[in-house]
Design brief:
Length: 284
Amino acid sequence: MKKIAIIIVSMMILNGCSQIENIKKKVPFLNDQEKNGQEQQSESVKESEANQNDTPESQPITPSEEQNVLTLESFFFNELKEVNGKNIIQNPDNILALVNKQAGYLPADYIPNDLVRPNVLFSFGDEKLEKSFVRQEAARALESMFLAGKQVGVELIAVSGYRSYDRQQTIFQAEIDKVGLEQAALAVAIPGQSEHQTGLSMDISSKSTNLDLTEEFGVTKEGKWLAENAHKFGYILRYPKGKEGITGYQYEPWHFRYVGKTAAEIIYKKKWTLEEYFNEVKKI
């Protein structure tokens, strides 16, 4: 190797630098060394560029998903006041109002002031019954959800939305008369503790179950599509299977509650109930 190098240097001196390329062509390993050197330099540049792209200065710093999940503004939490021995929810218009057997009671005279009839199919046709109404924000989302379902061959039919305190009282008493107080409490909310009174819930069915509200709906094409897609429109399956001990109610694959897209996305991804969501989020 040394002898070859000496020969090259001597030839360069004698013939000038203009002959180098000719010499390199005649000595293959020199070409290979140069090529390897160029490749190493290229890899080095790429590595340097990659390292630069990984620096905090070149990448925007965004809050982690976990940080977003665990914080929630204080006004989304129930504000309670004791009245005649009952904890009454003072901010029932809250889009995330937690209504269950432990969270407190909605005021007996509470009626949402923005109830509208969504432009969707109802099991009772065009009659403008109390249960055909929901709050405006929930109505627009419901319309979008029903339309999206229709576009993929899923026909959804609304059955029951808003329900007044007095109407809930009538339904609850009828259930007691039929199955007794203990069983009635598992299936029907007592007056003041029904999500339907918020105007944010809708019971949904399909022709495949004869428009009935039954557990069979959960295994239909329509029920499966809703469970997998409702969160995209701000709705959640409120009483999922296996969570009866948390929600206090039996599995209801037909009952969907509007909470807005942000909360719905989190609840869906985490496989939470609304109760679990509030147990995890930090009030800010």
